[in-house]
Automatic annotation (TrEMBL):
<feature type="transmembrane region" description="Helical">
    <location>
        <begin position="113"/>
        <end position="137"/>
    </location>
</feature>
<feature type="binding site">
    <location>
        <position position="84"/>
    </location>
    <ligand>
        <name>substrate</name>
    </ligand>
</feature>
<keyword id="KW-0028">Amino-acid biosynthesis</keyword>
<keyword id="KW-0812">Transmembrane</keyword>
<feature type="binding site">
    <location>
        <position position="77"/>
    </location>
    <ligand>
        <name>substrate</name>
    </ligand>
</feature>
<dbReference type="GO" id="GO:0009073">
    <property type="term" value="P:aromatic amino acid family biosynthetic process"/>
</dbReference>
<keyword id="KW-1133">Transmembrane helix</keyword>
<keyword id="KW-0456">Lyase</keyword>
<feature type="binding site">
    <location>
        <position position="108"/>
    </location>
    <ligand>
        <name>substrate</name>
    </ligand>
</feature>
<dbReference type="GO" id="GO:0008652">
    <property type="term" value="P:amino acid biosynthetic process"/>
</dbReference>
<dbReference type="GO" id="GO:0019631">
    <property type="term" value="P:quinate catabolic process"/>
</dbReference>
<comment type="function">
    <text>Catalyzes a trans-dehydration via an enolate intermediate.</text>
</comment>
<comment type="pathway">
    <text>Metabolic intermediate biosynthesis; chorismate biosynthesis; chorismate from D-erythrose 4-phosphate and phosphoenolpyruvate: step 3/7.</text>
</comment>
<feature type="active site" description="Proton donor">
    <location>
        <position position="97"/>
    </location>
</feature>
<dbReference type="GO" id="GO:0003855">
    <property type="term" value="F:3-dehydroquinate dehydratase activity"/>
</dbReference>
<feature type="binding site">
    <location>
        <begin position="98"/>
        <end position="99"/>
    </location>
    <ligand>
        <name>substrate</name>
    </ligand>
</feature>
<feature type="active site" description="Proton acceptor">
    <location>
        <position position="22"/>
    </location>
</feature>
């Protein structure tokens, strides 16, 4: 089973960026947590980019993966191109956010991506990613048992 963990703009600064909102664990720390949480038969690939086109390319690469865990950062609220890329691939995508976007500014309340995702997990800090991993595993098992 192959799962892509895809992080968008500014998430390379995790740990340093607005720690009151996003916590003090780095992207490297998040990667280590997810590797620990993943069962042995799950291969995780990690990609972070600040560029919309690179995020689209990464989604295309994951065309028939078992799933994608995707924090699109601010592109969540603006990008039709990312929405189209999610809709174009076979892999189920879980939209994740570290913060609870609905408890923040109103421009963060809308997601251009959510409607073409399997589901959305928002507000649980870095645990949002491990919850998304669990959701993808359950989804995969339900379809293959
Ligand atoms: C975020 C929420 C977005 O609104 C914001 O632009 C981010 C991070 C989150 O993980 O909480 O960059 O996706």
């Amino acid at each position: 089973m192959h799962i892509l963990v895809l992080n968008g703009p500014n998430l390379n600064l995790l740990g340093k960026r607005e720690p009151d909102v996003y916590g003090d664990v780095s992207l490297k720390g998040l990667t280590a947590e997810l590797l620990l949480a993943a069962p042995e038969d799950v291969q995780l690939t990690f990609v972070q980019s600040n560029h919309e086109g690179e995020l689209i390319d990464a989604l295309h690469e994951a065309y028939d993966y078992a799933g994608v865990i995707f924090n699109a950062g601010a592109y969540t609220h603006t990008s039709i191109a990312l929405r189209d890329a999610i809709a174009a691939i076979k892999a189920p995508v879980v939209e994740v956010h570290i913060s609870n976007v609905h408890a923040r500014e109103s421009f963060r309340h809308e997601s251009k991506l959510a409607a073409v995702c399997l589901g959305v997990i928002s507000g649980f800090g870095l645990t949002s990613y491990t919850l998304a991993l669990q959701a993808l595993l359950v989804h995969w098992r339900n379809r293959h048992d």
